[in-house]
Amino acid sequence: MRASCRQFLDVTAPLIDDPMGLRLFMPGTPAWMFNDALGELRGVFGIHVAQLSAKFGVDIEDDLATIVPAPADDEDDGSDEAVPRRFWRR
């Protein structure tokens, strides 16, 4: 998770430090790069939150559950890759 945060900052710091930092809020490459990096960060955190929830039986609040990957549709293969729905707070 720390490595993912460092990667996010490495990608976005030049965009934010740019004297024309407002470009992040305009359509184009800087906004795309920022949104791409943010999506990747959310994906990594979602996987780790799911694993922590499954391992320790911690409920996940609705807002945080939006980044948790959905359980696989196929049969359970015995792995703890997805968070059982019982741990999702709805």
Describe the structure.
The chain has one domain. The chain contains three helices and no strands. The protein has helices at 2-17, 29-56, 62-65. The model has no long low-confidence stretch (mean pLDDT 80). Helix content is 53%, strand content 0%. It is an all-alpha fold and 90 residues long.
- Domains counted in the coordinates: how many? 1
Strand content range: under 5%
Overall shape:
elongated
The radius of gyration over CA amounts to 17 Å
- Helix proportion range: 40-55%
Average pLDDT reading: 80
Contiguous low-pLDDT stretches (5 residues minimum) are none
Main sheet makeup: none
Structural class: mainly alpha
Separation, N- and C-terminal Cα atoms: 25 Å
Number of strands: 0
Number of helices: 3
Order of helices and strands: HHH
Brief sketch in words of this structure:
Helices cover 53% and strands 0% of the residues.
Please render the helix and strand layout as text.
Blueprint: H1 2-17, H2 29-56, H3 62-65
